[in-house]
Amino acid sequence: MSPQSTEWETVIGLEVHCELRTETKLFCGCRNAFGDEPNTNICPICLGLPGSLPVLNRTAVEYAMRIGTALHCQVKPSIFHRKNYFYPDMPKDYQITQYDEPINVDGWLEPPGGSRVGILRAHLEEDTGKTTHVGGGGRIHEATHSLVDYNRAGVPLVEIVSHPDLRSAEASRAYVDELRAILVATGASDGKMEEGSLRVDANVSVRPSGSSDLGTRCEIKNMNSLRSLGRAIEFEAARQIELLEQGGRVVQETRHWNEADGRTHSMRSKEEAFDYRYFPEPDLVPVAPSAEWVEAVRAALGLLPAERRARVASAAGLAPDADAVVTVVRLDLDSLVMAAAGVGADVGLAVKRLANEVAAEMDGAHHLDPDAFCQLVLLEGRGELTTAQARTVLKHLLDHGGDPRAIANELGFEAMASDELGGAIDEVIGAHPDEWKRFVAGEDKLQGLFIGKVKAATHGKADLKAVAALLQERRKG
Amino acid sequence: MRAVPGRISPADVAHVATLARLDLTDAELETFVEQLGVVLDHIADIAALEVAGVPPTAHPLPLRNVLRDDIPRPSLNREEVLAQAPDTEDHRFRVPRIMGEAP
Amino acid sequence: MSTPGRAAMTALDLAGEVRSGRRTAVAALEDCLAAIAADDPEVHAFNHVMVDEARAAASSVDRKVMAGDDAGPLGGVPVALKDNLCTRGVPTTCSSRILDGWLPPYDATVVTSLRAAGAVLIGKTNLDEFAMGSSTENSAFGPSRNPLDLSRVPGGSSGGSAAAVAAGFAPLALGSDTGGSIRQPAALCGVVGVKPTYGLVSRFGLIAFASSLDQIGPLATTVADAALLLDVIAGHDPLDSTCLSGQLPAARAKLDGGVDGIRVGVVTELATAEGIAPDVSARLREAAEALANAGAKVDEVSVPAAVYGLSAYYVIAPAEASSNLARYDGVRYGLRVPAEDIGSMYGATRAAGFGAEVKRRIMLGTYALSAGYYDAYYGQAQRVRTLIIRDFESAYESYDVLLGPTAPTTAFRLGAKTADPLAMYLSDVCTIASNLAGHPAMSVPFGTGDDGLPVGVQVLAPALGETVMFQVAAAVEAVAPPRTPPKQGIEAR
Q: Are residues A242 and A326 in the same domain?
């Protein structure tokens, strides 16, 4: 059931919270670590004890600048604000965040094969603690009480807010996929959605196709994977369309995605709307990175995914958004492509093998030594190994590592030198003079006979394509 | 910019008390309406001041870029902290039922 | 120079005596503890006396002295701490029920500095709850009383610290000043009280009231003692982002410098502010004349924005406080009123834990920040703050220091102003502008009012102007008339 009927258009904006891979928290020296025993990484500051004060982590600022730069944002002088509300996972009952003067503004991101998505801002803020609801199956409304762990409180986050430029669940997934790759490339994040270091909220609305006004949006939370993101957006868009088509109105609210029943649910509590009473954080001073620092961050940024795809595409003569190119870069196999290019191997062949055979066996990818891979591509490219043989050797390399020539020898795949092959062909021609005369005269179907004979004579080691090529050569001469 | 109202209504006071998570008795509500009204009247004079074009001062002194290195410091002893807590369970702070999700 | 109360010796002298071995720290401490035991039941300067800790610290000082080691600039000197300063393992309550019994797991930076300087921390003093008030009547544990007249307030919010020094319970105390909370009680109790330049003293471990205004500062019987204490607690702290670094002024540098040629401006708007009593005005005039006679160039100067401070303060301070006090929610420490759900718990806990003045200010502050009102109140107040800074800076182009009253009247009677919050707020009119500007200011005793109770004169200086401020304050002290303590104080018995 596609919400993209001729009548309706879905409009999506995404807010992605990204935990930064710093050693310590945003405002204190407690360790920023996942999975430690509850309440073991706490101090007066991140616990918000009376009298405590925040001091900003330099590396968190650096990482925020890397992210902004990678997203083509402008890095600006910024200040912090307090966002005031009561919740037990908030030690101070306010969150230190950035409001109308954030560190990064006005960027964009272009997923492969997709259109450009504007990025409004990417700002710094502190994370909250973690609440576990006890009783009632862990669901908040049936719980008897809750337990709070503040290990995560104060962990640095960068919140990346897109413009509402996305138009489908698929485009949204592609955006998050590319964003995650960019975040990992900056070194600022490990991109692990499943560990919660990357969290996505979606603002979804619908409007009649062709309209330029925005419909009322709902904020969807609790999507823990790309798949959930896609399903939730589709469900929500359909929900809103059905509501509107029946003459109802969409209520602006926060809704939770429920993976089990495949629906979003309204989470309106009986409390009133939140008034955050933002005001500038008086315990912190403004951050104004020098031009030198901004430039140093820009210069030190490694290759971003788009640049890596462009590089592979160029070397292999493919389009940057070709599936094989996208796959190779997503799986971090592009260094192998460039190594192959470096030794003069057939780059297109290298890409093919990586995007197919290696992609299917990523568990073994770490066994794959770049030199060995290059050797293998060269062997196959020169015809010293057949395609089938090359695939087999590759599987061995993935399973156990090793040297391609040695593996080929072990398996009896001796590489045939081309003069050896020529010799075998001449022998067969010599043994079948009548058939050869007829083949030279134009009986093409006899090629199969000769190929079969050469194969038998070489015990299957000859590369059949090479044989065919040599036969054609001889035929002309 | 909304004009300064001067007097504050009981509904306003009740709303503010809710935002601040303060349970007020009816008597307190009445008293606060009166007292806050008096104070607000008095401070309304700053609304009349001609301050267009004057930048706000958030900090009396012009400090910038106060940063610390990303180096771990010792955390608190968990037991010492939990000993001060009104209620704990499983090495965590225990609170009664939470009625809604975080914003 | 007259010293009120029973402090037999200044801190400077005591430190010298201990250092030379002529007196033990333990003996000095026992004198103070005896005075506390005799008179604090009436004065109620202290919420908590750190008897065991103090004795251990005093013994430790004496051992060091006997071993020939340096006991520190404050070695053996008892120091009282306002009960909004975190002391590890020692109850820190802010005189509020909501923190009754709370033991901080860490020391405030100033406490660490004091310990390192050899000070003997003697106890936690009473204050208006969460430092909100001007009389110490807002304490959840009962008011403190003015040692010079027990029917009167010691001022606030650092009333306990001022009373402790005035009563001779300790030669030194630390208070905090957000709108005048060190200077006003100092004036009312006849002691010296100093609010330093914002950022000169670390706020780490000071339980926050209004973050952009709060400063910790010394109370003492003499200007020299206050300078000694300030120089120990001042300095950069990496745990406070709003703390200054680099070249910082020494309060003691020019105490004997005199005032020859120093330009002193008497602030017209402060001297003639609404509510300033005639006897207070008279003392100010006399102080100005005495300084002129001592060689200063004294004149009147207009600082128009100085009187806008009250309104701006009563927006900014409650706004920041409403946010700073949100953390007192019964979840992690302090009072919790049990309830079925967390929203009810929050509401009931904070209702039971906070007194009326704190609730009033939280609501005022919440209102000022709430949707639709931010620009009209908070935004506007921050702009007024800029005007105040500009007016002061303009004045300091022509003057080295400014002069004004500290408090509008002498100490008022307990209960005199509690019915009318606005009346209480008006007593801050002379002190508030310095907090908004972040400039240093201090109160020096100068004679008495018609009722025989102490009057304080305020010396104001530009940011980081502590050296000249103390220089002039010492001169004021030197020319101050002697004071005969009134009969209702503790010395009369």
A: no
